[in-house]
Amino acid sequence: MKTHKSPLKRFMSEQWAAALIGNILLFLILAVSQPAFLQATNIMNILCQCSLFGIMAIGMTFVISTGGIDISVGMNALFTMALMYRLNSYGIFPVWAIFLIVLVVGCLVGLLNGFMASVLNFPDMIATLATMSILRGAAYLLLDNSQKFVDAPLRVIGNSKLFQLVPTPTVLMVIMTVIGILVLRYSRFGRYVLAVGGSKNSAVFSGLNVTRIRIGAYVICGVCAALGGIVYAGRIGSIAPNS
């Protein structure tokens, strides 16, 4: 006989329920201990600060959902910032072109990670560790191993506000989150990603192109890391080699 769970039991059985409850409890504790925590300015500042990690986490979710891992995302973001600075220093590229170029480069970094992990069959951590080291060295070279300041035009995404109220990085993080949820839960590619992560052998026997799916997940992760670098550089206003 089939039993029906109550709405509360169905909610508690969801994997994200524990994380949501934990965050709510943390929010309440901070609100009680520090009344200034509830101020709108502070809330918006927190959302803006976590936007970098939120955007990068969206891409990482796709990789982890395939059973992989990408530890190069931090250096991908740093390399993105360094490349932005270098391209802008030439004075021949408009801002939109610089953003487009670094996003394409982030896509290529993800493609490289996916190729090494899926085609060459390197362990995911080893493949992305190698990429991380390469990107760190390349970023040091682009920055001349010194801190650089970001010109105002390149800060348009990370330092602006929508309707003079909500930080643009926060809006971007929410948009990316919604897109990530829709793709992962309701698209064919998203279902394939979850199938690969559930059982790679079963996915192969089902006729799925596991290599292409895993590479696609790494590409998404690379683009999100590059976008996170754009947001971080715009918000902070400077780029340090140890970022």
Structure description:
The structure is a single chain. The chain is mostly helical and 243 residues long. It folds into 2 domains: 8-38; 44-239, no CATH class. 72% of the residues lie in helices and 3% in strands. The chain is built from 10 helices and 4 strands. It has helices at residues 7-13, 17-33, 40-65, 73-90, 95-119, 124-142, 168-186, 188-198, 200-205, 210-236, and strands at 148-149, 161-162, 166-167, 238-239. A two-stranded antiparallel ribbon has the order 1-4. A hairpin with a 3-residue loop joins strand 2 (161-162) and strand 3. The longest helix has 27 residues, at 210-236. The radius of gyration is 20 Å and the shape is globular. The N and C termini lie far apart (57 Å).
Task: Write a short abstract of this structure.
This protein is mainly α and 243 residues long. It is 72% helix and 3% strand.
Notable characteristics:
single chain, globular, 243 residues, 10 helices, mainly alpha, two-stranded antiparallel ribbon, 2 domains
Write the layout of secondary structure elements.
Elements (H helix, E strand, L loop, with lengths): L6 H7 L3 H17 L6 H26 L7 H18 L4 H25 L4 H19 L5 E2 L11 E2 L3 E2 H19 L1 H11 L1 H6 L4 H27 L1 E2 L4
Antiparallel strand pairs: 1-4, 2-3
Tally of DSSP β-strands: 4
The tally of domains stands at 2
User: Terminal Cα separation, in Å?
Assistant: 57 Å
| H-E order | HHHHHHEEEHHHHE
Mean pLDDT: 89
Strand order of the largest sheet: 1-4
